[in-house]
Write a structure and sequence with these properties.
By secondary structure, the protein is mainly α. The protein has 14 helices and no strands. It has one domain. The protein binds zinc ion (2 copies).
Length: 262
């Protein structure tokens, strides 16, 4: 069943068909690479000077908040700019974001690889940075940040699964408990993202970063700057140019609006 945004002009089945064998191969390769680099990072951490175990919860919190922020940043980027025809990322990433907006339940029908492959592949970056950090220095500070990187791999990798649970009609009792406790993204919190004006709550790991980012108008400011520099209208490809211009008009910021180009 489609639960699309009323003004979205994209066709769900056409977007779904964009999931090719090549894309799946990329996901499988990404999972393999992250598994290898992540394991290597953990081994290197055990070989490094040991931190007191008390630092582990702080490193986990840091990794979780970092993953939440990155989930929001990447989600905002692909929701807001470009189209399926954008070189490289159009087919690889933007397609899945457009598809999710016209058929929110589709993610609940995806298997493990299609749901999580992209995010696990993305975690390769966290593993690489963690390894480079330890390679550059084995001080306790470096060990702490590399440990945060290891936790970030876990949380970035889990983000799509957590997002999928937020859309499931009947998740398990344990998942419902974690959602109610706001330890993972709650369906009610995420539903705000899928409601007009479609420009809130981009963070989808735990959602904890949404409040602070909203408070400082993080994404709104970035959009103003990008629009001023490029003339591009945020969300024009996602919800249509007219609705996108209305969304901008709702923002209480006294800056000139981009003009519609016919
Ligand atoms: Zn979205
Ligand atoms: Zn969603």
């Amino acid at each position: 069943m489609s639960q699309g945004q009323g003004s979205n002009e994209h066709d769900a089945s056409e977007l779904e068909a964009g999931y090719t064998a090549g894309h799946r191969l990329y996901e499988l390769g990404g999972i393999a690479l992250t598994t290898i680099l992540g394991t290597w990072l953990v081994v290197r951490l055990f070989q490094s000077p040991h931190l007191s175990g008390w630092w582990a919860p702080l490193a986990a919190l840091m990794g979780m908040l970092f993953a939440d922020f990155i989930s929001g940043f990447v989600h905002w980027m692909f929701d807001t700019w470009g189209s399926v025809d954008t070189p490289v990322v159009g087919r690889l990433a933007i397609r899945t974001f457009r598809h999710h907006h016209v058929d929110q339940k589709a993610i609940t029908r995806h298997d493990f690889i299609e749901t999580n492959g992209h995010n696990i592949a993305l975690s390769t970056i966290c593993a690489t940075f963690g390894l480079l950090w330890l390679h550059a220095s084995s001080s306790l500070t470096s060990v702490f940040f590399a440990m945060g990187g290891a936790f970030a791999i876990v949380f970035v990798s889990m983000t799509s699964q957590i997002h999928k649970w937020a859309h499931e009609t009947e998740p398990s009792a344990l998942i419902r408990f974690l959602q109610r406790a706001r330890i993972i993204l709650s369906p009610a919190h995420h539903a705000v993202h899928h409601a007009a004006p479609y420009n809130r709550n981009y963070c989808i790991t735990v959602g904890w970063m949404n409040g602070p980012l909203r408070a400082i108008r993080f994404f709104e400011t970035l959009e103003r700057v990008i629009t001023a520099v490029t003339g591009a209208i945020p969300r024009a490809d996602d919800i249509g140019e007219e609705a996108a211009l209305e969304t901008i008009a709702e923002l209480p910021v006294d800056a000139p609006l981009p003009q519609r180009v016919d």
